[in-house]
Fold these 2 entries.
Entry 1:
Amino acid sequence: MSDEIDGNPVVVMETSMGSIEIELWADRAPITVANFLRYVDNDLYNNLTFHRVIPGFMIQGGGYNSDFVEVSGYPAITNEADPSLENDRGTLAMARTNVVDSATSQFFINLVDNDFLNQTGRTPQQFGYAAFGEVVSGMDVVDQIATVETANRNQHQNVPVEPVVIESVTRR
């Protein structure tokens, strides 16, 4: 099996609920893909969790371990959101704060077409979230993760009651 799809790298995310295979769009979001692969290559996503799960919206991971200790990441990257990089069902995007260029390690997988997350202009409110890949296998696992029971934990909402662990993320 090839390590790439159309010249783009592919990663395998092994979770406590199954495997998810993701094509990363290095040809369309090179800064974001390089950032994500830096975390992958240094095993920094291993044993983190999907710490935010909202059915009908997205599942988010890459920031906390199962004890809900936040990981420290690399410096924030430039937001590569673009109207052509849509937050459609099955796409992978970078999570960020209200600051446009604040994404570090956290990412999310869209469960539905989230058009309101797409870039529509250059102001901070219009900038959007940088989609940089898509699930090519294992969307059933993503959908299964979306069904777990959630609750509030400290100041966080929509936290899985039983942790959904990202056991590893490796290049295929």
Entry 2:
Amino acid sequence: MESLPEAVLIQILASIPAVELVLVCRLVCCQWKNLVDGAALWILKCQQEGFTGAEPEEEAENWQTFYFLRKRKRNLIKNPCGEEDLDHWGEVENGGDGWKIEDLPGDFGKEFPSDGVHKYFVTSYEWCRKSQVIDLRAEGYWEELLDTTQPKIVVKDWYAGRSDAGCLYQLHVKLLSEHEDILAEYQSDTIAIPQDNAADWTELSHTFSDYGPGARFVRFEHGGQDTLFWKGWYGVRMTNSSVTVEP
């Protein structure tokens, strides 16, 4: 192995699972440690798995961290579209007739703008709220990464009214420490959708960055109601909520 050109050794190491590279291969010798800590090996692994392209990704300062973040990138919100009723959603406030799950497009509604979303949550004539708390460490993001790299935490939600009723909508997200201190917070304005609207789906997003060390949990809460106080489910509709940790 000592006689192999470095480029060939990098090709061999790139075939080894990433966790073993860091926990095992890095300890073999100084040469392997330098290769595992360097950029070339991780650029190659990113290319092998399709993680690079004509995006700012190519300017990543730490390719090893970039690789692990892309590998783990997924929606951390469970049951974002109501396919499992209200499972995984806690601290539910059921104002009026409470939450309901309906099939898209619903009465006086429109289809969602992308494939794969078939249901939505809908609110009633008093405030309905629900939340989810995401444990970042349980999802595989280690403390050193969260405290030192502080990867971007991107929050998105989609909302719409039905065309025959006005409604209100609000999104509130917090980054919490281990002891549930608030490290960063985003709260949207209370968004009012008038009666006789177009029933279009609108995406609301916020990116947390440079939030400081200590983030361990994300608390996601959204809700709303109708403004006509009609019995039933004429309030704001929500679906395809997401929280992702990104490079």
